[in-house]
Write a structure and sequence with these properties.
Strand content: 15-25%
Number of domains: 1
Strand order of the largest sheet: 1-2-3-5-4
Low-confidence stretches: none
CATH superfamily: HIT-like
CATH topology: HIT family, subunit A
Structural class: alpha+beta
CATH architecture: 2-Layer Sandwich
Radius of gyration: 14 Å
Number of strands: 5
Distance between the termini: 36 Å
Mean pLDDT: 95
CATH class: Alpha Beta
Order of helices and strands: HEEEHEE
Helix content: 10-25%
Largest sheet: 5 strands, antiparallel
Length: 115
């Protein structure tokens, strides 16, 4: 059995996090190194290493992550002003933890291009 990722440990409450939302399929918490005034990570409880490794069986879960991002954005007061969602994939994409997650960024004007 492989070692748990940081995010699996957060899901299992082995590592503390500032949780803003959770349900049976995902958990959302504040990033410890925020890149915007609001920076929340939304992760599935099911460990999917990255988006390219998701399968058709994960389709409903992936949709749930986006719907949850909208719900959290509304609760954070960003629904009207706007926000950005980011999913990193692989080292060149900026992936730091091999567990699919959605970055919800807001609270300021986002620049383009992003990086």
């Amino acid at each position: 059995m492989s070692e748990k990722t940081l995010f699996e440990k957060i899901c299992d409450k082995e590592i503390p996090a500032k949780i803003v939302y959770e349900d049976e399929r995902c958990i959302a918490f504040r990033d410890i190194s925020p890149q915007a005034p609001v920076h929340i990570l939304i992760i599935p409880r099911k460990p999917i290493p990255r988006v390219v490794l998701a399968t058709t069986e994960d389709e409903a879960l992936l949709g749930h992550l986006l719907l949850t991002a909208g719900k959290v954005a509304r609760s954070e007061g960003m629904a009207e002003s706007g926000f950005r969602l980011v999913i990193n994939n692989g080292p060149d994409g900026g992936e730091a933890v091999p567990h699919l997650h959605v970055h919800l960024l807001g609270g300021r004007q986002m620049e383009w291009p992003p990086g």
